[in-house]
Amino acid sequence: MIGIVVVSHSAKAAEGISEIAAQMSADVPIVAAGGDPVDGAGDTDGDFDTPAEIGTSVERIQTALVEADSGDGVVVLVDLGSAVMNAELAIEMVGVDAVIADAPVLEGTLNAAGRGGECDECGDGRRESGRGPRVPKTRLSHGASARSVLREFAFGRGENVF
Questions:
Q1: What is the CATH number of the domain that holds 116?
Q2: Dihedral sign, CA of 134, 87, 2, 94?
Q3: Number of structural domains found in the chain
């Protein structure tokens, strides 16, 4: 089953989005990776129990990727541009087969959870490096709907699945 990681600059936002999405499908592994426990909060032991500051953490995203991956891959949804950079770095470092979906973080997470995380063609079109394709954020402003972007780039399907 495809796992989902929600990356947000706010730990509370990531946790809230994950909580809502879990109501859509209790079986899909959905992991929040929000906030930055290292900057200013002093969490140096890696257990992420220190209250998080605003920001994102490569280490927190790496941990979430491993937790969400059941062997079928992970869809990562992010809130802002710098979260994309940290998610890309985390994916490269941890080696999980993952795709960064360029969709609104809340709606995209709910759509992915509602589909049960299942995705037969999710591996199609992946780069040889193991990193999934990523659409520039500007694509959404040029007429593509979040639904079509998520379908095309995260799930690799051409039909209307939502």
A1: 3.40.50.510
A2: positive
A3: 1
